[in-house]
């Protein structure tokens, strides 16, 4: 697996831009800030990463099935007792398969299972957790979690 680096810079109050080393960027802001739209919230980016990872991996794990029309919908659900975390992530793979083609349905289902059981780094990290190290401006470790 590759290592990654993202730089996030402040544009203004509650308005940030994340950039990768390949030149792509995405705006991150609060959903209720009309001056910072269009943008993604941090949780929406997590959902997008889960769906995007699933899609990229399904392209490999289910390549025997025509899945050009595949749509992946990721939703979050949280309750007060989730204590500031996402409680449940629901990933739905939506695709109309040819009626009666049990082979295609089985191959797609196998590909989706393999995606989340073995190959999707984002899904596996969310499921199993990751160690989080937070450093301040002087490189002092301010927080260790996970």
From TrEMBL:
SUPFAM superfamilies in the cross-refs: OsmC-like
Record protein name field: OsmC family protein
